[in-house]
Specification:
This protein is mainly β and 176 residues long. Helices cover 0% and strands 34% of the residues.
């Protein structure tokens, strides 16, 4: 494996934000203590959204992160918007959830994966779905309206509307 030294060109920033920096910010939004926000200019947040302590909203220089009205994001979540992230209305996201919208391509075993180019894929959480604590949603996944993802699940493929999924990797348990 060839490893070339890589120079880190710049920081991602402090994560500190001002409310006026958002692309859109609704009424009644709650940001708890120590929430970090990157690229707020590419983040839209609807009305009456709760964002829990120590959550990171990792916007990106391209694509948009949208969070719909009346959604609840628990403590210590990591939401990544590089590939685009759409969270519908009245979505529940439990504490410690990770949502990823990019990954490194596996192109050549001769170079470290970290040095491989990124590929981006949008994640969509449709209205009224619920994501259990500690779950991980991988790039390109769509969670259907009213669906439930059980705590600690790793979701690698689309979940249909009103389905209940759980496990590692997550599998359909039933419809509701």
């Amino acid at each position: 494996m060839r490893i070339k030294p890589v120079k880190i060109n710049r920081s991602h920033g402090s994560g500190k934000f001002r409310l006026k920096d958002f692309r859109k910010l609704g009424k009644g939004v709650v940001f708890e203590k120590a929430v970090l926000v990157f690229h707020p200019e590419n983040i839209e947040i609807g009305d009456n959204v709760y964002i829990g302590h120590y959550t990171i909203l990792k916007g990106y220089y391209k694509n948009i992160m949208k969070i719909g009205d009346h959604s609840w994001i628990g403590q210590g979540c990591f939401l990544h918007g590089a590939g685009g992230l759409t969270i519908g209305k009245a979505v529940g996201i439990g504490p410690g959830v990770i949502i990823l919208t990019s990954q490194h391509k596996d192109i050549n075993k001769e170079i470290p994966v970290y040095f491989s180019p990124l590929e981006f894929a949008e994640v969509v959480l449709e209205d009224g779905c619920d994501i259990g604590a500690g779950s991980i949603i991988l790039p390109g996944v769509r969670i259907g309206e009213g669906a439930i993802v059980g705590a600690g699940s790793v979701v690698t493929k689309d979940v249909g509307s009103y389905e209940v999924w759980a496990g590692v990797p997550a599998k359909k348990l039933r419809s509701r």
